[in-house]
UniProtKB/TrEMBL annotation:
SUPFAM superfamilies: Pentein. It is an enzyme of class 3 (hydrolase). Its EC number is 3.5.3.6. This is arginine deiminase. It catalyses: L-arginine + H2O = L-citrulline + NH4(+). It comes from Luteibacter jiangsuensis.
């Protein structure tokens, strides 16, 4: 497969975005607390920023499915294969037919997980950017641990399972972000001891960028990495200088309207060219 030089990123406009139910701690106290004007403005800024480093492809939003703007959760892309999500909560399950139809229409091969396994796509499954065919998978809140061996078999990849321990960091992409050349941004306290040991075993100390709680709560790990660019909601001066020291350029885009729903930059995107590295 020929790898594209300009990555394609799937985004879905927040036309119908709102907080209308509570399925994670961030949503508590924010029901009907967002406005279309603010969310559209912040999403436009993210789209424009990403457009300078990638081609943004847009999926039409569907009325009645307010979290569909978080395209990371549609499923997992690997080469031309798409593994659709099976959402844990009924509040999001209605997104599934729209996502499946979009990927079918765009020529992806649809590969199914076994029935009854919850899996929330690239919210919980993130490819390493240093080691080919290595997938990090979070479980414990949304995705089932049973998705890990199934994905390993279906995609012929190594899957490293990480148990998430803090309900505020309910998807792996809220507390862990593989970056170019194997650098890894993560919030250690979001993981159980075995998961932390696994991270430390597979990511060399010089490539681990552990964030403090204040950065984690600002969704700094929920970053979009395109080459040497890291796009995120906010980074402290300390985190910014550590990322710059590792050769990354940090771009902040305020996304607080989406944080009321428990998501930020990475959740609002899905990379459509996930290299198979084979
Ligand atoms: N972390 C992500 O990948 N996506 C954010 C999803 C937010 C949505 N309100 C949810 O709880 O599923």
């Amino acid at each position: 497969m020929i790898e594209r030089t300009v990555p394609r990123i799937l985004m879905c406009a927040p036309t119908f975005f709102e907080v209308s139910y509570v399925i994670n701690p961030w949503m508590t106290g924010h029901v009907h607390d967002t406005t279309l004007e603010r969310s559209q403005r912040q999403w436009d800024a993210l789209r424009d920023t990403i457009s300078r480093h990638a081609d943004v492809v847009q999926q039409p939003p569907a009325e009645g499915w307010p979290d569909m703007t978080f395209t990371a959760n549609a499923g997992l892309v690997f080469g031309n294969t798409f593994v659709p999500s099976h959402f844990r909560y009924a509040e999001r399950q209605g997104e599934e037919p729209y996502d499946r139809a979009w990927f079918e229409r765009h020529g992806f091969d649809i590969v199914e997980l076994p029935g009854g396994v919850f899996f929330e796509g690239a919210g919980d499954a993130l490819f390493d950017r240093g080691v080919a065919r290595r997938l990090w998978m979070g479980h414990g809140h949304r995705s089932d641990v049973a998705a890990a061996p199934a994905l390993a078999r279906l995609l012929d990849v190594e899957v490293l399972s990480l148990k998430l321990a803090d309900p505020r960091f309910y998807h792996l992409d809220t507390c862990f972000c593989p970056l170019a050349d194997g650098y890894t941004l993560y919030f250690p306290a979001a993981f159980d001891a075995a998961a932390l040991a696994l991270i430390e075993q597979h990511v060399p100390p010089g490539q681990r960028i552990a964030v403090h709680e204040h950065d984690a709560l600002d969704f700094a790990c929920n970053a979009v990495n395109l080459g040497r660019v890291v796009i995120l909601n906010r980074a402290s001066a300390d985190l910014r200088s550590r990322l710059e020291g590792a050769g990354f350029m940090v771009i902040e885009v305020a996304l607080d309207e989406f944080m009321k729903s428990g998501g930020a930059a990475k959740c609002l995107t899905l990379k459509l060219d996930e290299a198979t590295g084979a």
